[in-house]
Design goal:
- The complex is a heterodimer of chains A (about 80) and B (about 750).
- With about 80 residues, chain A is mainly α.
- Chain A contains 3 helices and no strands.
- Chain A has a domain of about 30 residues.
- Helices cover about 65% and strands about 0% of the residues of chain A.
- Chain B has a two-stranded antiparallel sheet.
- In chain B, helix 8 packs antiparallel against helix 23.
- Chains A and B meet through helix 1, helix 2 and helix 3 of A and helix 5, helix 8, helix 10, helix 13 and helix 16 of B.
Chain lengths: ~80, ~750
């Protein structure tokens, strides 16, 4: 938080706490939505590769998504009615 | 698979946890302590039970002029909570017996792509988006012709005792088998013959389900330039999104979905403007047969195009819309609290002569409302992707059972939206054109002649309602989607925008449903093609090669021809289409549920003696589905009433054709009815025969296992000790929070087994 030095007057404490909460909630929503939609899939994959196969080459994000789509082309999954 | 038994606490050495790690599961003693009743807990559950009881009383017993929609919400939510807290716990404790010391496939086979231990809350959203589609939005609307109570009871009670049980158990057993599909499990458990019958049944069922969903879209878009334009625009929008993700910014899924959403809203607003112009009218007013052919051509092209171009981006869009709209609608119902004037029961429940679909409450209510109460299709979804992403075994209750409860809630909201509109308008919209004649005058006269108390509709009401939502006509807009859209517009405009934007909300809802259905059509065609390629590959191995384009094209064309033929029959059906074909959809879906439950039945029976005592939990919904689907099929095949029995109707029209009697319509009409009823009747026979085979084999396998007492884990994977921890439910318990913080301090388990040597 980029508050100027000395701005910690007692009266602003609840406001700061509230702001922190809003930021926390917004961060949580952002985390939830991006994880649900799949934005983090590449990061997850990279983290996995680094941890489990440190010597293997990590594909670029572009390549990762291309491979993923090819995979889906080969193994279609049903959507529900 | 090796015969490592998961039963018998710690009987095998595989589940001894690494002593250098914090506990990977909450201890038995701690579970015991947490399940003890304390005063606040007793008070809380008493209050939930009481509120639920009051809500049910308001719906079922107090018969005022109207009933407030909020009682539907309370009755549903309180019953779900009780089902989740008590019944699902019984299933967990006695039938499934998950063990958090055991690693899930996501942990054992973790590859960062298909097998990824996923946060339970994210996976819940994922799973819900995968199971919820247009089904729960359509069935309850049609069933509203019997009054609100039969549908409400079946949706809420059915999900607790049947639908959620199926989803939960299939998810769990698939997880124990590395995410194997229900078809593969059927083959493992029932042997080759039973398994093959199950696979053929699922293939046929898939075809019929795609055809009927497509019919719903066609009915919603016929003669609607606004709808055709805005739904048509989803194609360029999806393609734009696909190109954006592939070439411009790979991986920015939320970003592109937001852009797509904004474009979608613009397409809806633009559709209103375009439909208002003369050229727009001329260009986009299409009759239903033209739209059906367009959909067939689309279905073929979409299923052979690469996934990234059309299917994947539209999937993102529909996930986004699904979660968003459902939250919005729930909020709106709670805030607006519409008064419902539809009676609890109408005479059609008893006479079976309703105009929307024919048949008495038993068994036809239970096949008309399939999704939302019990949906066999979920067995295909619950076995497959989701089980590969589960972090801990105990989370299956939250994901499987809890996910299905949410779908049931969607069905309740669809029902509330549909019954919030005037009952006269409801019947004018949902009766087939054969009865309403398609004009406002005839439709009003027909509806008023039904003799329902409190129902009176004027031609002006019908034309002004159509004008309010920007449609040419709302008479005989069958299929459920337009009714739901009108109901949603009716509720939403009271909250945002007023009457001026009812047209926007109406087309927003149509778009919302069309989006799901087009995705289901496209993905379903791909899956069906894949299954066909696999089967043909047994004789001609080349078909198994999915990169061999001619094979892909031939198999796609065969599958599209299959559902396209039924779609065209439905669109041109002189008797209406939805009313004659929808029962097939419901029966097909419930038969799939019967197959899935039969497989679960056999698996549980084989688990051992202590499980058999609780087998009724599976046997009851299995028996119920068997009874409703088989009796509905038999009625459809053998009933002498032409309105109900396909063959009776076939005979009636054949007699008319032979006698040269013109009273049933022109020779073309008579010929069409004879052909359609023959197709419907034949499909009914095939479905019921296949399903009886599968169920009989499953029950025989189960009974043999009970008799011999042979314990067999029926292809379960070997147990591997888990090396991670996560809470089971949405809100962590105290013990779970303690473990979580210990893991936080410790950090994730080091890679590689038992590295630390002390």
């Amino acid at each position: 938080m980029a508050l100027p030095q000395g701005a910690m007057v007692p009266a602003s404490r609840p406001a700061r706490a509230a702001w922190q909460r809003v930021r926390g909630a917004a961060g949580a929503v952002r985390w939830y939505v991006t994880t649900l939609m799949g934005d983090r899939a590449y990061d997850v994959y990279v983290a996995h590769q680094r941890a489990h196969h440190p010597d293997a080459e990590v594909p670029t994000e572009r390549q990762f998504w291309r491979d993923r789509m090819t995979e889906q082309d080969r193994n279609p999954g049903a959507r529900c009615c | 698979m090796t015969a490592v038994s998961p039963r018998g606490e710690g009987a095998d050495g595989a589940l001894v946890q690494d002593p250098s790690l914090p506990p990977v599961a909450v201890s038995e003693a701690e579970h015991e302590r947490e399940s003890r009743w304390t005063l606040p807990k007793i008070l809380l559950w008493a209050a939930i039970a009481l509120l639920g009881a009051v809500a049910w009383t308001m719906l079922a017993i107090v018969r005022g002029e109207t009933v407030n929609a909020i009682w539907f919400v309370f009755a549903a939510v309180c019953t779900y909570l009780i089902g989740y807290r008590f019944y699902a716990k019984v299933i967990e404790k006695y039938i499934l017996r998950p063990d958090d010391r055991r690693a899930t496939p996501a942990e054992v086979l973790e590859d960062g792509k298909d097998f990824v231990p996923t946060d339970r809350r994210v996976l819940y959203g994922h799973h819900f988006a995968a199971i919820a589609g247009a089904g729960p939005l359509v069935g309850p609307v049609l069933a509203a012709q019997m009054g609100f109570l039969p549908g409400t009871i079946w949706i809420i009670v059915g999900v607790v005792l049947a639908g959620a049980v199926q989803d939960y158990t299939v998810l769990f057993f698939s997880m124990r088998r590395g995410g194997r599909s229900i078809g593969q499990m059927a083959r493992d458990v029932l042997g080759k013959f039973g398994g093959t019958a199950a696979i053929i049944a699922s293939l046929l069922i898939m075809v019929i389900i795609i055809a009927i969903l497509a019919l719903v879209v066609v009915n919603a878009l016929g003669e609607s330039p606004w709808g055709v334009f805005s739904v048509g625009m989803t194609l360029p929008i999806a393609i734009f999104m696909g190109v954006y993700l592939r070439y411009l910014r790979p991986g920015r899924v939320t970003e592109v979905s937001l852009i797509g959403f904004v474009l979608l809203i613009a397409a809806i607003i633009g559709g209103g403007a375009v439909a208002g112009t003369e050229w727009g009218q001329a260009l986009f007013t299409l009759d239903r047969t033209t739209i059906a052919w367009a959909l067939i051509v689309y279905g073929f092209i979409a299923a052979v195009l690469p996934v990234w171009l059309l299917l994947a981006p539209r999937d993102y869009l529909s996930t986004f819309m699904k979660v968003g709209v459902i939250v919005m609608l729930a909020g709106a119902i709670v805030l607006v609290r519409p008064e419902i004037s539809v009676p609890a029961f109408t005479e059609f429940a008893e006479t079976g002569m309703g105009p929307v679909f024919s048949g008495t409450l038993f068994p036809f209510l239970f096949v008309t409302i399939a999704c939302g109460a019990l949906s066999g299709f979920h067995a295909l979804i619950s076995s497959g992707t989701t089980p590969k992403l589960i972090e801990k075994e105990r989370q299956t209750r939250f994901i499987g059972y809890g996910g299905m409860l949410m779908e049931s809630f969607v069905a309740i909201m669809a029902l509330v939206a549909a019954i919030s509109i005037d009952q006269g308008i409801y019947f004018a919209m949902n009766a087939p054109a054969a009865l309403t004649g398609g004009t406002v005058e005839n439709a009003a006269a027909f509806v008023n002649s039904l003799g329902l108390t409190g129902v009176h509709v004027t031609p002006e009401m019908l034309s002004s309602t159509a004008a309010a939502v920007g449609e040419e006509s709302i008479v005989s807009r069958t299929g459920g989607a337009p009714t739901l859209a009108l109901g949603l517009a009716h509720i939403m405009h009271q909250l945002i925008g007023g009457p001026a934007i009812m047209g926007f909300w109406y087309h927003f809802a149509i778009m919302f449903e069309a989006l799901f259905i087009l995705t289901a059509v496209d993905a379903g065609t791909r899956v069906a093609r894949f299954m066909l390629q696999d089967s043909l590959g047994a004789w001609m191995p080349r078909f198994r090669d999915v990169s061999w384009r001619p094979g892909v094209w031939i198999c796609t064309a065969i599958m599209v021809a299959g559902w396209g033929y039924i779609l065209i029959l439905g669109v041109t059906d002189p008797l209406g289409g939805i009313n004659t074909f929808f029962p097939l959809f419901g029966i097909a879906n419930q038969l799939l549920a019967g197959i899935a439950l039969a497989v679960v039945f056999a698996i549980v029976a084989k688990r051992g003696r202590s499980y058999v005592r609780w087998l009724w939990i599976i046997a009851v919904p299995l028996a119920f589905t068997a009874v409703i689907t088989i009796s509905a099929s038999l009625l459809k095949i053998f009933s002498p009433v032409p309105g109900i029995g396909y063959w009776a109707n076939n005979a009636k029209y054949r007699a008319a054709q032979a006698a040269g009697d013109g009273s049933l319509g022109s020779p073309e009409v008579v010929g069409a009815v004879i052909r359609n009823t023959a197709v419907q009747g034949t499909l009914s026979i095939i479905f019921v025969v296949l399903t009886v085979i599968v169920m009989a084999i499953a029950v025989a396998v189960g009974i043999r296992a009970i008799r011999t007492g042979a314990v067999d884990d029926a292809g379960e994977d070997a147990a591997v000790a888990s090396r991670r921890f996560a809470p089971a439910g949405l809100i962590p318990t105290r013990a779970e929070r303690e473990l979580e913080s210990r893991w936080q301090e410790h950090g994730p388990a080091p890679v590689g087994r038992k590295r630390s040597g002390h």
